[in-house]
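A quick aside before the break. I want you to see a complete sequence-to-structure record at least once, exactly as it would be stored in a machine-readable document. Don't worry about memorizing anything.
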Amino acid sequence: MRLIGPDGDQLGIKAVPEALRMAKGLDLDLVEVAPMANPPVCRIMDYGKFRYEEAQKAKDARRKSTNVSVKEVKFRPKIGKGDFDTKVRHLIGFINEGHKVKVTLQFRGREMAHPELGSRILDGVIEAVGPIARVENQARLEGRSMSMVLAPDKKAQDAIRKAAEQQDEADPQGGSNAEDEDQQDSSEALQEDR
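That is the input. The structure line, written in tokens, reads:
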């Protein structure tokens, strides 16, 4: 077998008993790292420490990976303005959290005769969401429902966030002067009435 030392240096081709003796002399383990090679490659290492480090790397990789789930928001062709606004607000919240959103429009009975109503509602959703999301799957009719998938657009969200920060830096008052003037005008009007 080809033997690699604990520091990664090549120790040459050794017999198994000799390699085991060398590993025991260093109070380490002999681990076969490439069994399919010709000759097989073994390494002298602390196997417990190696397994611990591998587990830590896997844990860090899981922590750094983002878990994107697909949320679903359901609409109906005869949805009212208030319900539509509420559902779009929830949809925008999901997108801001980094989730993909499946927008489903369900038809019942004779509503199937007018799929253009569904298309109009889905177009309204796209318009209301604006640039923070991009359409990943276009709207298509599947049986009694029409659906599309929206995904967050990170670049657009970052650009909007930067623009808002620059606006806040430019106007630290946040437009409260107009409110103060309105309150002053109303208090003067009350004094005149007395």
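Two observations worth writing down. The mean pLDDT is 82. Residues 70-156 form a domain with the Translation Initiation Factor IF3 fold (CATH 3.30.110.10). We'll return to this after the break.
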